[in-house]
Structure formats: structure tokens, C-alpha cells
Amino acid sequence: MMTRWILKEIDDADTVFRLSRDLNDLAEPLARSLVLRGVRTLPEARDFFRAGLSALHDPFSMKDMGAAATRVAAAIRARERVLVYGDYDVDGITATAMVTHFLKERGVPATFFIPDRLKHGYGLCAAGLDHAVDRQASLVIALDCGVSANAEALYARDRGLDLVICDHHTPPEILPDAIAVLDPKRADCAYPCKEPCGCAVAFHLLRAVLAELGEDPSSVHEYLDLVALATASDVVPIAGENRILLREGLERLRRRGRLGIAALADEAQVRLGECSTRTILFSLGPRINAAGRLGDAGQAVHLLLSDTSHAAVARARHLERLNSERRTIDQSTLDMALRDAEDWEERSPGSALVLYDPSWHIGVVGIVASRLVERYRRPVVLLGLNGSVAKGSARSVEGLNVYDALSACADELEGFGGHDLAAGLTVRPERIDGFRTRFVEAVDAARTAASGDRPVTYDAHLRLSEIDERFRSVLRQFEPHGPANDPPVFATRAVEVTGNPSVVGRNHLKFRVREPGSTTPSVDAIGFGLGAELPVLEESLRSGRTIDLAHSVTDNDWNGRRTLQLSVGAVRFSLPD
Hints:
By secondary structure, the protein is α/β, with parallel strands linked by helices. 42% of the residues lie in helices and 19% in strands.
């Protein structure tokens, strides 16, 4: 059966015409892409393209922010000992570095604690709170964790610790007993941005603390590079406030200011001056994560806090070695998981995969689960053995809430937590089979079009001749991209294949196209993972049949030269009009 290509619907086509006119006759495909992103008027377009940090929401509109800011400000004034308690991923590591630096800059004897993935598991734990007591701390600030830590919050109170929680995960019905629980996902929280990363929640806390202290809240902008690392790495929706924070943070990253990040970029052989969301996702983020996956996540915090080039370089090199080791383990685990997945597909095909092997390192199962999701386009749970229990990660596809699916079989689990597309869980090995059955049933019940084979959807029709310099300049301003703001997808119909199409790299389709009868040069195109479509292009060359492309318009930067390139997601022989 041929995959359907579907033009995304717009309620009022006149809106596109008016927006195009108001934006000085902006190309209709771009105007349509804006409308699909909720941009319908000239003021909304200005906000989309130009909104700056002044457009951030009032941090005090977040539930409990007043109590949190008052308590942290009091600790600063009294120079109390504070323990900053973070998570072991990029989000938690950056938040920990940010808050620790902020407090130390104001004379607070702050220390930090990040749990060991294998020894302590995720989130607040008694050992970490005992560490706070040993350090004579009176206040613990939990970052990117804590919203489900009811028992641990009671333990903190019993040990004489005040607790402020900054989290962004889905909260339980009963919240922990703490001085403040900051989480925009709370049902009673009016904060407009409901999907920030944990580091962003901590960033807003610091804004509020500065206001409480009577200091300039804009001084917290020095941490926007850390917020950008977390926002991109945690794969939150890149819309509204998140988009502002990521865009401004990327600008700060490009200035190569923080010693630790500059050293890490050098080790990764990436140019910070051209830093993008992709740079974070595939180069910087994995190296920061490697510390928590295979070693001590505190090493990454120390890297981000480095105040000398010598220390930064030494720490960055250590993370590079850890990341190389992590990649080796990743590949081995992926190879085993793929074999298991194929076996399960033959024996019991379904809408979800739940795989377990006691030999799998729980520090990499999340990465491997994500790769299986990309391959099979369905939710995946990967579990390894940690002591007497199996621990692992769940990853999902857009449109299927994996947290809800886990909630439906919570009685099979020892614990779980997370959000729509990613979660962590613990289950006893003897209950894995029962959990697998229940989880697949839950996914089946909630399955949407996004969890199976999906049609090709696109924003607008586009002729190659419409892609001029103004088009490309405006399109670049759609960045930064990410969930809720993917690059616009266009359908270009009836183009000719030129040259010699080929498969390069890991099954990528490389070719060139042009409009029939055009005298302009043909355009480079690449279809990542589309090697199987090479016969379509070869037949097009032999027969002269034109093809249709679903693609985004990108820049290919090579050796300092920027050229136009189409990033192709689907190809077919042209259909009759």
C-alpha cells in the first residue's frame, strides 16, 4: 500500500494570505508554516522571530515560588550551609552547576551531591540527605528530581533539613512535604510554560531569589548557556519560553565563555561558534551524560565549574575517555537488543517492546531504547539488573504518553517516574513477564496514529524556484528547532533527478534534482536512512519519470562554504494531477 502524503490543515486559508501580505509578501509556503505554528498576525510573528528575555514569564507566578525564594534568600543572607542535590543527566548536572555557582558567588558555603546511578538510583535518597547532615547543611535544594519523593521529604524533615524541590516531572496526587515544591506540572500551578526542563525551573528560582535580595535579576543570564544545554538535551518542546531560553543560550554558547564547555567542545572537535541544537544533542550532551552513565556525575559538574583552563582541559579529556567507553558499551548493548527485538517480533509482534538482559549496563539502556524507538516506531522499555531488581528506561513516540502507560501497570512495578516521552522504572525480575503483558496492553489501548506507520505530512507545497536568499534567511529564523518546532516540511512535486544518485555512509541517499526545463543549477539532496529508495531514483533517470519529494530546506556548511541542501524524508514517483 502506498503511503499517503497529507497537507496539514489550516482552518482559515485567508489567514495565510494576510500574514504573507503583512510580512512584506513573504513566500506563501513560509507564511503557511508560521500559521501552523500558531503565528497568525504580525505581532505574533514579531514575537516568534524576535521575542527576547524580557518576554519570560514572572517567576512568582509559579506555585510556591514565593516560599522558595524567601527560604533561599534567607540562606544567602545568613551564609547557611546548603546542599545542592541534582540528578545525574545533563539536565540535573547543569542545574547543579548553576545553583552551586550562584550560591558560592554570594558567599554561601554550598556543596553538591549527585546520586550514583548504580548505588543510589534516581532521585532523592536517604544517603544523599545523610550527606547533607554530615556537611552540616540546613537547606537542601533538589534539582530535576524530588516531586515524587514523599518518603524522602519526611526523612529530610526528621533529620532537621529544610527542603526546596525544583522539578518538572509529572507529580503524584500527594506532593512531598517540603518548604516549596516548584513544578509547573502541578495541577494548582498557574505558570504558563508547562514543559520546561529542570534546569529552567532552577533558573526561574534564581531569578526570583535575586528579586527577593533586591539584586538585578538579569545577572542570572550568565547561566543561559547551561539552560540551553539542558533544554536541548532533555528534548522538551521548543516553543514559547523554552524557545527563547534555547535561542539566547545558544548565542551565549557561541561566544565560548565558560571554560569547561569550551574545553569539552575542543575534545569533541566541534566549533562552538556554530553551536546548534544538533551540536548539543550529538556532541556536548552525550559527553556530559557519560559521567553519570559510567562514573561519577559530579565530574561533569566540576567541569562546568572549572575556573582555570588547565582544570577544564583535564576534566574534559576525562569525560572524552568515558564517552568513548560509553559508545563501546552502547554498541554492544544495541547489537544484543536488536537480536532480542527481532526474536520478540517473530514470536509476539505487538505495539511495544519490553526487553531485559541482566548483563545490560543500566547507564546506557536509555540511549539504546531511544535507538530502538527510532527503528521500530513504537514504545520501548529496556531493563538491566541492578542488585536484586531490574532497572531501566522507557522511551516513546510522539502522541503516546509512556508515563500514562506505566501508570496503568504500576502495581507490577517497584517504582517509576518521568514524563510523556521518557521515564525510568524499577521492577523485580520475576515480575517482568507480567509487566510486559500489562504494558503492551496499556500501549494497545492508548495507541494512536503516531505509534504506528504514519502518513507523510507536510506544511506546504514548494517549488524549487521559490527558494531564494530571502526565503532561506527567513527560514533560518525558525530556529532553534526541536519538538513542537521541527523544521518546516515541504512537498516539491515533479522534479527531475540529475547526476548519479548513490547510497553513502550508513544507508543515506545522496542525489541532485531540478525543475524540468530549468536553466538554474540542480540542487543537492540527501535522504538520511533512505538508501532503499535508490531504485526509484535510478528508474527516474532511465525513464524520465519525475519524482515528488517531502523535505526540509537546510544549509550544508562545508569548508567554510554554505550551500543549499534538501533534507529529504520521503520520495515517490510523481502522481498525476
